[in-house]
Amino acid sequence: MENIRHIFFDLDNTLWDYRRNAKITLAKLFEEFQIKEKHAYTFEEFYPFYYESNESLWADLRDKKVTKDELRARRFPEAFAGLGIENASFAMDFEERFVNEVTNSNYVVEGAEELLEYLKDKYTIHILSNGFEEVTHWKIEKSIIKDYIDTITTAEGAGAPKPDPIAFQTSLDKAGATKEESIYIGDDWIADMIGATTFGMNAIFFNPLNENHMWIEEVPIVGQLIQLKKYL
Ligand SMILES: [Mg+2]
């Protein structure tokens, strides 16, 4: 990829280890809210309901079926209802605490630091995330990612989530880059890969959980971040 000068990364579960950081925060809150003592459910029982609720609402946000506020109002009430706790009065406090505290854990995805160190002298590096504006900045500021990043664009800031071309165009404009000299790397097939390639950008798919089995001929797939060195 000879002419590439700018690399745009997705943030959650591509560089910032959302799954791990969220799980640590949820376990801590689960204990503080004494859910096991009051409702007789364990964290291990709760977590799959949270995961399902969170993943499907983020997909709905990407597909513009829900707003950010709806996602935040529904994610924990639905997770607790799935578990068997209907009308959980504490669910919105739980949401508030989760958003404020999830960035207290700042694990990055395996290989992220080594990769960013390798890329930093060759390329200008940017973030384009579907995350909330404020939380996205905290995730970057409080982790090692901040040392490598030039610009940050969020769906909230752009006014549209990936795969909408507006999100990609906004991040290019902010970076002062053209699509021909840019490449996008992310872990969501629709938001990241369909989004970038439809927009006309080069792309590489990061597929660590091997969850997705679709492919586009010109899009390489890697299971570990460090394998990106082969292409960049
Ligand atoms: Mg992601």
From TrEMBL:
**Is Hydrolase tagged as a keyword?**
yes
Q: Does the keyword Hydrolase apply?
A: yes
Keyword terms: Hydrolase
**SUPFAM superfamilies registered for this protein in UniProt:** HAD-like
Which one of the record's GO molecular function terms can you name? Answer: 5'-nucleotidase activity
Name of the protein described by the UniProt record? Putative hydrolase of the HAD superfamily
